[in-house]
Write a structure and sequence with these properties.
The structure holds two protein chains of two kinds.
Chain A lengths: L1 H12 L5 H19 L3 H24 L1 H8 L2 H7 L4 H30 L4 H28 L6 H28 L6 H29 L2
Helix pairs in contact in A: 1-6, 2-3, 2-6, 3-6, 3-7, 3-8, 6-7, 6-9, 7-8, 7-9, 8-9
Chain B lengths: L1 H9 L1 H6 L1 E11 L2 E12 L3 E5 L6 H8 L7 E7 L16 E4 L11 H12 L6 H7 L15 H9 L1 H4 L4 E5 L7 H16 L3 E5 L10 E4 L4 H23 L1
Classes of the chains: A mainly alpha, B alpha/beta.
Chain lengths: 219, 246
């Protein structure tokens, strides 16, 4: 399992791995919002956390379709499926590697982009924390979509469409926890705990479901 | 635990009783049967060459044996083999190498690192990377990215995977199709050595692999069975199911 994790991480950061495309897309989405909304700092700082979360969600979806596709194209997936490691654990290792390579950079970039949107320091901290907890759930959900679409030639868009409805609860609770940390009457802990629960739930369910889809789709 | 396990695997009793049995095995894609039923027993040191015209189901049979496709009927059993952990093997996929049409190597990663990954992932004992590359006639290229090699060299480098992780059963699907005559001879020697150690080889090949004495399993062209009976009937059912779903 650690072997797969280390290899995927290295491949992601090597040339053509595409780990950084997510961050660049995130940057592009968030940086264009102030131009579209206008220079109203109050408005920007009010919608800022939601913008950051939507940007992060879309960027995470963008990197998902390569999760199994590259391995399938060169035949590696056959050996991963039949290998001695149980397939759900292999999928879990691949998900974790993908999250470290493409999810963590999103979390790391969010404070800088929060400044673009005139967020208060407290809001920036809350966005970082909720993204850190919430983005793994998006990767685990996306792994199922990527596994279902792996045999399709242009599965990328299909993955996003399949995954988006399932990722909506993550978005809702991520954003409401962030607002809870900033606006006084709103509660922070209940939505944050539900966000944690979503990540744990999909962390347990996602790899098993993705492994089932990969096995059924092996041709 | 690895101590007794290794003893059981390489010791004489395990090797002599190793056998793979196909009992009434029917293979196919989806629900369409492509070939079978097969009733074959392959014993330690023996080989099975699968022959037949294109589309007869050679690859389907081999992928079913490797555990990538579910058999439509019948069973594949393996006796007397131990997994790399030392447990008795239940399924053939735990104790076999599968070499398909694709190389399963990353073009941007060096040959040595590619093989090292497979050695670690597949587990068990095996030759070192340098030794394995020497055995396939590619000494001293471990540092080169896999993508820099020619098609034949890539094939040979990926065949070195058979050596870095030891498995008693090799399932080979056209393993030497891109190789020149000298490389084919060298690979035939490797296959012979593997069988000499008590290993089993199941191969679909048109080239000589030193398997002239092997049992041959000839697949008849199954075009009529597939196109007449299979898909038409299935399409109806599948369509109804799909419409119901939507």
């Amino acid at each position: 399992m650690s072997t797969v994790f280390a290899r995927d991480l290295r491949l992601a950061f090597q040339g053509g791995g595409g780990a950084m495309t997510g961050v660049i897309f995130f940057l592009a989405v968030v940086a264009t919002v102030p131009f579209g909304v206008g220079p109203d700092l109050n408005l920007l700082s009010r919608i800022g956390p939601a913008i950051l979360w939507i940007g992060a969600l879309l960027s995470a979806l963008l990197t998902l379709d390569r999760l199994f596709q590259a391995d399938r194209d060169d035949g590696t997936l056959d050996l991963l499926i039949t290998g001695p490691t149980p397939l759900p654990l292999t999928v879990l290792a691949k998900c974790l590697a993908l999250w470290v390579a493409s999810g963590l950079p999103l979390v790391a970039a969010s404070p800088l982009l929060g400044l673009f949107l005139a967020l208060s320091p407290q809001a920036i901290g809350a966005v970082m924390l909720t993204l850190l907890v919430g983005t793994p759930a998006i990767v685990f959900i996306g792994a199922v979509g990527a596994a279902v679409a792996v045999t399709l030639p242009r599965g990328g868009l299909l993955v996003s469409v399949l995954v988006l409805p399932l990722a909506i609860p993550v978005l809702i609770f991520g954003v409401s926890a962030t607002y809870g940390a900033v606006n006084d009457p709103d509660p922070f802990w209940p939505p944050f705990m539900i966000l944690c629960a979503l990540t744990l739930f999909f962390g347990a369910l996602g790899p098993v479901a993705a492994a089932g889809a990969l096995k059924a789709g092996a041709d | 635990m690895p101590g007794p396990g290794r003893g059981r695997r390489s010791g004489p009793p395990a090797v002599t009783t190793l056998s793979v049995s196909l009992a009434g095995l029917v293979v196919g894609r989806g629900v369409a049967a492509v070939a079978g039923p097969f009733d074959v027993v392959i014993r330690a040191g023996a080989a099975l060459v699968v022959t037949g015209p294109n589309g007869a189901g050679k690859s389907t049979l081999l992928r079913t044996l490797a555990g990538l496709l579910r058999p439509l009927g019948g069973t594949v059993t393996v006796d007397g083999a131990a997994t790399p952990d030392g447990e008795p093997a239940v399924r053939l996929s735990e104790v076999c190498h599968y070499v398909g049409h694709r190389n399963a190597m990353k073009p941007g990663v060096s040959v040595g690192d590619n093989l090292l990954f497979w050695a670690r992932f597949l587990g068990g004992t095996g030759a070192g990377v340098a030794d394995a590359l020497g055995a396939v006639g590619l000494p001293g290229i471990a540092h080169l990215p896999f993508g820099y090699l020619s098609a034949g060299q890539q094939r040979r480098a990926s065949l070195a995977r058979l050596l870095v992780a030891e498995r008693p059963v090799w399932i080979l699907d056209e393993p030497t199709s891109a190789l020149d005559a000298a490389s084919q001879d060298r690979f035939a020697t490797l296959v012979g050595a593997h069988r000499g150690r008590g290993g089993i080889v199941v191969a679909a090949t048109h080239q000589p692999l030193g398997l002239e004495d092997a049992d041959s399993l000839s697949l008849a062209p199954s075009a009529s069975a597939v196109s007449a009976a299979g898909p038409v009937e299935i399409d109806e059912a599948a369509l109804d199911a799909a419409e119901g779903w939507l």
